[in-house]
């Protein structure tokens, strides 16, 4: 039997879209025919398999159809995991525990938590730095022009408070 798309990408069937994308990026860099040390024909075939797996698993409709094709059901495995965890070794019932491999999602279907990428952090730092520099420039230009930094009404209120 041929490998499943999950096995080709090296992820579990419970993997999130982010995990699938991350695995695809890593494998495509590793097996790209122009950058790998593998023979050209083997690299092309492996790269084609990786692209086919990613194309199917990154699309929610295709992924659902593929899961039905390979007869994988998240609910089936979830209920088995919960039922096996509900009873302790001495036979007493313990709390209803969800499988930790299953990722929770909001109503929009996107993961609830994900780390910021390096590019996103860099963009936020640029935006924050730009705001701070602009505020400093506004105060500096106003001070050099001799304008009042605080309007008359605010300066009266500050004096009254002191």
Keywords:
162 residues, Helix Hairpins, mainly alpha
Overview of this protein structure:
The chain has 162 residues and is mostly helical. Among the domains are: 5-72, DnaJ domain (Helix Hairpins); 118-161. Helices cover 61% and strands 0% of the residues. The chain has seven helices and no strands. It has helices at 5-9, 17-31, 40-57, 60-69, 74-86, 118-145, 152-161. α2 packs antiparallel against α3 (40-57). The longest helix is centred in the last third of the chain and has 28 residues, at 118-145. The model is unreliable at 76-106 (pLDDT under 50).
What is the overall pLDDT average?
A: 77
Biggest sheet: strands, sense, closure? none
Report strand %: under 5%
How helix-rich are the residues, as a percent range?
Answer: 55-70%
Low-pLDDT windows of residues: 76-106
N-to-C terminal Cα separation, in Å? 82 Å
Quickly name the level 1 CATH class of the domain at 5-72.
Answer: Mainly Alpha
What is the 3D form? elongated
CATH architecture of the domain at 5-72: Orthogonal Bundle
H and E string? HHHHHHH
* Overall strand count: 0
- The helix tally amounts to 7
By CATH, the topology of the domain at 5-72 is: Helix Hairpins
Radius of gyration from the alpha-carbon trace, in angstroms: 28 Å
Structural class: mainly alpha
CATH level-4 homologous superfamily of the domain at 5-72: DnaJ domain
């Amino acid at each position: 039997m041929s490998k499943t798309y999950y096995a080709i990408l090296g992820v579990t069937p419970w993997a999130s879209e982010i995990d699938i994308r991350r695995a695809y990026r890593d494998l495509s860099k590793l097996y790209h025919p122009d950058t790998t040390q593998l023979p050209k024909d083997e690299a092309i075939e492996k790269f084609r398999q990786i692209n086919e797996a990613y194309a199917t698993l990154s699309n929610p409709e295709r992924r659902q159809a593929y899961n039905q094709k390979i007869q994988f059901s998240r609910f089936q495995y979830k209920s088995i995991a919960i039922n096996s965890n509900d009873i302790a070794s001495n036979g007493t019932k313990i709390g209803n525990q969800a499988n930790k491999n299953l990722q929770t999602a909001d109503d929009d279907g996107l993961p609830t938590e994900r780390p910021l990428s390096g590019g996103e952090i860099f963009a936020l730092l640029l935006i924050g730095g730009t705001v701070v520099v602009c505020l400093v420039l506004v105060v500096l230009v106003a001070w050099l022009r001799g304008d009042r930094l605080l309007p008359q009404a605010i300066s009266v209120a500050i004096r009254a408070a002191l």
